[in-house]
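Dear colleagues,

For the upcoming journal club I promised to circulate an example of a predicted protein-ligand complex. I picked one with magnesium ion because it came up in last month's discussion. The inputs are reproduced below in full, followed by the predicted structure.
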Amino acid sequence: MYVKELFVDNFRNLQKQKIEFCEGINIFYGLNAQGKSNLLESIRLLSMGRSFRGSKTTQLIKFGEDYFYVKAIICQENNDKKIEFGYKKKENKVIKINGNKIKSASELLGQLLTVIFSPEDLNIIKEGPSHRRKYLDSCISIVEKNYLYNLMQYNKILINRNKLLKNIKEGKSKNILEIFDDQLVEYGAKIIVVRQNYLKNIEINIKKFLLEISNETAEIVYLNSVGLKDASDEKIVKKRLKEKLLKNIDLDLKYLTTQVGPHREDFKIIINGYDSRVYSSQGQQRTVALCLKLSEFEILKKETGEKPILLLDDVMSELDENRKKYILEKLQGFQTFITHTTKRDLKGDCYFKISNGSVIKE
Ligand code: ATP
Ligand code: MG
C-alpha cells in the first residue's frame, strides 16, 4: 500500500494543504522546527489512532484553533481507501474509513500499515520494562486480531482485582477472589502465549539483521510472569499463572496490587551474550533499536501480506554510511517518508521542502 495524498487542516504548525506523494522514497527536508516531524505524525495518527510522540489528541490542534482534521487517500491493490481523523476540542474524535464512521480508534489498526523509525526508539532498549511492554503491545495489536481486546479485558479485571484486595484487607470475604483470578488467568494466558510467539519471531529476524549489520549475535529472552522458558502452551501457562497468583496472595494483600501477570513482564535483548540495556554502548543500542524496527517491519509484512509504509523521522543523521546504505537497501520497493535537515546525501524519488509548516514539492 502507499499514501497517495494527504490533506491537513489545523494540524500542529502545518499550513492547510493537500500534498501528493510518490510511491517510492519521499524526502522531506528543512531546517529545525519547520514541521517535518509533524507531517509524519499526521500520517502515523491515521495508522495508529494516536500520536507517536505520546502527545494527547488535543495537543495536535494548531495553537489558537479549536479543531484539526487530517485525511489520507491510500492506494491498495489499485483500490483507493480514504481515512479521515477529525477532532474538535471538548468533543469526541470522528474517525472515518471510506466515509463510514468507526466506533473506536482501535478499528483503525491494520488499515494503514506503517512502521516508524525515530531517535526515541532508543528508549525501547534503554528505558524500563513499561516502554518495552508498550512497544510490544502496539506491534502485536496490529497483527493479532484479538490481542488488544484481550489486553483491555485483562486490564479491566486487574483494576477490579486490586480494588478487591483493598476490600479484603478491610475485612471483606476472600470468596470472590477466585472468580477474578480465573478471569485474569483466562485473558492473561492468551496474552502471554501471543507475546511469546511474537518475540520468537522477533528473535529470528533480529538475529539476521544484527549479523548482517554489525556481525553480532542476538538473543531475545522473554521475562514472562510464569517463569517458563517457553510459554507457548496456553494450557500450561494457565496452570502456572493460577499457581503464581495463589502463591502471591499474601504479597498482593500487603501491597494491595497484583504482583504477577502480563502487566509486570519484560523482555531482554542479549547482544554477544550481554544484556544490551546494561552493557551496550550508545551506538550499539542504536543499532539494536534499528534491527528491532526492521524486525517489526518484516513481521508486519509477512503477517499481513501487505507492503507497509516506512516513516523515518530524523534517523538518517544518526547512522554511519554503512548503516544508512543497509537500511535504504532493505526499504527498496516500499513507500518511505524520510525527514532530514538537508537535501544533500539522500537519494529519493521525490523531494519536498518544508518551511514554516508549508510543504512544497519540487
Ligand atoms: P527538527 O528538525 O528540529 O526535528 P521539525 O521540522 O521536525 O524539526 P516539528 O517537530 O515538526 O519540527 O515542529 C515544528 C514546529 O511545530 C515547532 O516549532 C513546534 O513548536 C510547533 N508546534 C508543535 N505543536 C504545535 C501546535 N499544536 N500548534 C502549532 N505549532 C505547534
Ligand atoms: Mg523533527
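Two points we might discuss: The chain has ten helices and 15 strands. The chain has a mean pLDDT of 96.

See you all on Thursday,
B. R.
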